[in-house]
Amino acid sequence: MVCSTVREGMNCPFMTANGCDYNGGVCHKIDEKCKGCNRSAEFSSGWYCTVYPDPSLKWKNGDCNFASHISVASNGTKAKLNPLKASKRGNR
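-> structure tokens emitted (92 positions)
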């Protein structure tokens, strides 16, 4: 259903005929760590996440999995190469 509380006009899975069914009845504003994310949008009452109703819970155990402004850095170590398979690949 379409939200009629905070994020007016957006599709929301928590909206029912009786109103918002989410914990507390409204979405929560974005966390400080969410600034710069493509999934945050400004509404009349402030900035809110367009994907999740309570963004601070997504940051509780580390990085938010919806965050578009964070890139995952690799550790830089290469996988061990099997020398037998490498020699066969080199002969092609």
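The longest helix spans residues 83-90.
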